[in-house]
Design goal:
heterodimer; A: alpha+beta; nine-stranded mixed sheet; 36% helix; B: alpha/beta
């Protein structure tokens, strides 16, 4: 396909489950993926039994606000829950408790390498049960598992600021990383703990008005798929527009086997959810002080952390970024940095070593042990892999007889090669690392 | 006949060992055997044995009737709709848990208008209940079964629920006492939801004293209902036998249309308060006709959402089992919540609701309690509700303002027509969480007049 004259106009809606101990509106355990059997974490409330009444999970509300603050959102001091009424077998009350016109968070922004994406709103709601379509004794049946019913679910909605499929993918990942880093959700994509939806349209280059249509591609469960789905939609829509037609306003699904989107529901039969404030749940009021307290509890966010480390320890962000995904890991890494500095080790170097796995480590290791290990291994000169390999190659070339014998089974000759290489290098090296490289070359 | 004892009398006699629980139960049982077939009060009788825990607790295992919209563990709960014909809850509503803990034994589940929609019990899909005072007449509703159970001495006391009149109106029609607590005073957890923003569980009893006793055991904050209040629960019996001298009583609604039949009778009864040293003033309140609109819109909207769960997938019977009244309300509520209409109806109704709340706040600056007739007239004849779509709302009109404002109120018998044996009720309303005031005034009226059946045998 030739270079397109169209630009992408795309906003995203991302759902993520929060990992609170209990569910959003009842005391049941929130562990739908860890449950041994279906329907064990249920009660009259999350089963929608007559008389069941929801009571809001405070932790989930605070975490939602925490995420909002991390994404530079404003927070509504007065908020409420609303009922979204619709029928579906996985929705036992026939309404989902959600937030309609007053979400907890609004007007935020997240940075990506392609530019900022504005966050329209973040609201809190409850997840539905899970339908399983099976064949039992030759009969097609649909089963419902309510372990997931009423698990806290946040929805993060962006403005149509996403300009490329790659940016959509990066946004999704960035969001996941922040949610994980805050420790409020696992965002397990495969299990459905995080679900992506993209609102996609395209417009001619140079145009600035929003197109008069959009397609919503729903329930995408991987970052790669969202990138592919947007690419696919851009091409599909361009073909339609080039014919002088307007793509249908509709909801589409993503078929990951065929790598295509497909029509699910057109806007003509769009539902009216009859939103109204849930009379079972009193409105929620916060004071500015309470919000500031949550802000104070926010950890230093990854972006800030990485730039501070750059200033403070001279660590390149390309290393720092890869070294942690949770607050605990970040703390552990910084302990290493502090200790290294004290020991006179170049912090950027140990970071590099760790990123490139030239040293084995687990986040459960004692930082002092790791630094000691690094020191003993690296009481050495700085030698690049290229230099190592070129010397090894030379040694092997010069000793082709010995190589042949080695390959015949005299494996003890490895020590000979090792000695020769050390001699040729004439420097202090990490013996373990050199042996590894040598072995690799010999096996070629 | 020991079934004609009040709850308090029975407790006293049990304590003095003048009677046994078995004596009471056997009299209640034979009264039920004799009358239930005709009156249609109980839909389900409880076969569960009285436990030792119940007999040793304060209410001593005494027989209490419970409206069939309270979920009761292992005991069928239908809300008088065949949609739930086979529904046996796996859990007790909080009020029932509390009642059992206090030693109240459920004697049976009483009839109501299906889903508590109505003021007659005529929308029950298990047939109407008849008024024990005069069986040509209706008991009112929706807690008609519970009020009739008390009036006919088929229990010692009962539980009802009120959304807008459903405790007080049938209590008035059956000549018994009905106490609607403040919204949030008693937990709604486990009560089949009607209009969630006004549903209030409460007692229906023979005397004000009995209502105070029951309320003591069922009130209080519940972690399962976020709309319940943390307000401290006083011992309500301490407000009995109190002097009402110096209290300021405002009489409302005697000036509105539709009260001609009973107005003079009612005004005559109010005089007793002056004799007891209270000041009585006739005062204008916001026209209760507006409350009908507010309540109808809010209630229908909430109903349409609350009944959505009976979608035919669970509970055995599908949506075709809904009766005419429920279908009517679901459709109206669906319409008023629809896109483009929610603002016009639901949101406007909420604003008018606020006006009622403000009107009450103003009135309560000048008066301790406000009183009015409970219902615009006597119990209506059997069959009359079927021809009037707004039957309930008109009968409950005088109660709807205080219901939508969440206020506590009590209905006490205040007149008996000697020809028909039918009763009128007096509704006493107080500010939020001031059940003490309605108990105090209601008790004073009851003890200084001749209208209470059990005090004037």
């Amino acid at each position: 396909m030739s270079k397109s004259n169209y630009n992408l106009v795309c906003g995203m809606e991302v759902h993520a489950e929060l990992k609170t101990n209990s569910k959003m509106f009842c005391g049941c355990k929130n562990d739908p993926f860890g449950a041994q059997k279906p329907n064990i974490y249920t009660c009259p409330v999350c089963l929608g039994m007559p008389g069941g009444i929801p009571v809001a999970n405070k932790q989930a509300i605070e975490w939602t606000i925490k995420l909002g603050l991390a994404l530079n959102c404003k927070i509504n001091l007065f908020s409420k829950f609303d009922r979204k009424n619709y029928f579906y077998p996985d929705l036992p009350k026939a309404y989902q408790i959600s937030q309609y016109d007053i979400p907890f968070c609004y007007d935020g922004v997240i940075e990506t390498s392609y530019g900022p994406i504005r966050i329209t709103r973040i609201h809190l709601e409850e997840d539905t049960g899970k339908l399983l379509h099976k064949k039992i004794k030759g009969e097609d049946v649909s089963l419902i598992d309510f372990n997931r019913s009423s698990v806290p679910l946040i929805e993060i909605v962006t403005e149509p600021d996403i300009k490329s499929p790659e940016q959509a993918k990066e946004y999704g990942k960035a969001l996941r990383d922040i949610i994980r880093y805050l420790g409020i959700g696992d965002c397990d994509m495969e299990q459905g703990g995080m679900r992506l939806e993209a609102n996609i349209s395209i417009r001619k280059e140079g145009e600035s008005e929003l197109p008069n249509y959009k397609t919503e591609v729903k329930n995408i469960n991987s970052f790669r798929f969202v990138e592919q789905a947007i690419k696919y939609e851009m091409e599909r829509q361009e073909e339609i527009l080039e014919e002088g037609k307007t793509p249908k306003q509709e909801t589409r699904g993503w078929d990951s086997d065929k790598s295509v989107t497909f029509s699910q529901r057109t806007k003509e039969d769009a539902e009216d959810y009859r939103y109204f404030p849930d009379p079972d749940l009193p409105p929620i009021r916060f004071t500015k002080e309470q919000i500031e307290q949550i802000r104070d509890e926010l950890p230093e966010l990854p972006v800030v952390l990485v730039s501070r480390w750059e200033k403070q320890y001279n660590v390149e962000p390309r290393f720092s970024e890869l070294l942690f995904s949770s607050q605990d890991e970040a703390k552990w890494i910084e302990d290493i940095f502090i200790m290294s500095e004290r020991e006179g080790i170049k912090v950027n170097k140990i970071a590099n070593t760790m990123v490139n796995k030239k040293i084995d480590f687990k986040y459960s290791d004692k930082p002092s042990d790791l630094v000691a290990k690094y020191k003993s291994a690296n009481a050495t000169d700085d030698i690049s892999d290229e230099e190592f390999i070129s010397v090894i190659k030379k040694v092997l070339e010069n000793n082709s007889d010995a190589v042949a014998r080695y390959k015949d089974g005299q494996t003890q000759l490895v020590n000979f090669f090792f000695g020769q290489t050390m001699k040729t290098l004439g420097k202090k090296v990490d013996a373990g690392y050199l042996k590894k490289l040598l072995q690799k070359e010999l096996e070629k | 006949m020991l079934n004609t004892l009040t709850l308090k009398q029975a407790l006293d006699k049990l304590e003095k060992k003048e009677i046994t629980l078995q004596d009471i139960n056997s009299d209640v049982k034979s009264a039920i055997e004799k009358l239930n077939k005709d009156l249609n009060v109980y839909l389900t009788l409880n076969e569960q044995k009285i436990t030792d825990q119940e007999t040793t607790a304060p209410l001593a295992g005494l027989p209490i009737a419970v409206k069939d919209n309270y979920c009761t563990r292992d005991l069928r709960t239908t809300a008088s709709s065949t949609v739930l014909d086979n529904f046996i809850p796996q859990y007790d509503s909080t009020v029932i848990t509390k009642l059992k803990k206090a030693g109240g034994h459920i004697v049976g589940k009483t009839n109501l208008d299906a889903w508590a929609h109505g003021s007659s019990t005529e929308t029950s899909q298990y047939g109407r209940t008849l008024n024990p005072r005069n069986t040509d007449h209706l008991p009112g509703g929706s807690s008609g079964g519970s009020a009739a159970a008390v009036a006919a001495d088929l229990c010692l006391a009962s539980l009802g629920t009120e959304t807008a009149g459903s405790i007080r109106q049938p209590s008035s029609w059956c000549g018994v006492v009905g106490l609607k607590p403040t919204y949030g005073r008693c937990s709604r957890y486990g009560v089949v939801a009607m209009a969630s923003s006004t549903d209030s569980p409460g007692p229906i009893t023979k005397t004000v004293e009995d209502s105070a006793i029951i309320l003591n055991y069922i009130a209080g904050h519940d972690k399962y209902d976020g709309t319940t209040s943390n307000q401290e629960v006083p011992d309500f019996t301490q407000f009995l036998d109190q002097d009402i001298k110096g209290m300021k009583i405002g009489v409302v609604y005697t000036d509105i249309e539709g009260l001609e039949e009973i107005k003079e009778l009612f005004i005559e009864q109010v005089k007793i308060f002056e004799k007891l040293g209270a000041t009585v003033e006739f005062v204008k309140a916001m026209d209760p006709h507006h409350a009908i609109g507010v309540y109808t819109i809010i209630q229908r909207g909430e109903v349409s959402s609350n009944l959505g769960r009976f979608d035919g997938i669970r509970y055995g019977n599908d949506r075709s089992f809904f009766g005419h009244e429920a279908k009517n309300r679901i459709m109206l509520g669906t319409y008023t919540l629809s896109k483009g209409y929610a603002d016009q109806y639901y949101n406007t109704a909420q604003k008018v609701r606020t006006l009622f709340i403000e009107d009450y706040q103003k009135l309560f600056q000048d008066y301790d309690v406000l009183i009015s007739p409970t219902s615009p007239g006597y119990a209506k004849k059997v069959g009359v509700s079927e021809s009037s779509a707004m039957f309930g709302e008109l009968e409950d009109m005088l109660l709807e303002p205080s219901s939508i404002a969440g206020l506590p109120g009590i209905s006490v018998p205040c007149y008996r027509d000697p020809k028909t044996n039918l009763y009128l009720g007096m509704n006493i309303v107080a500010p939020m969480f001031r059940e003490d005031l309605v108990i105090k005034v209601g008790d004073a009226f009851e003890k200084n007049t001749k209208w209470n059946t059990w005090r004037n045998k």
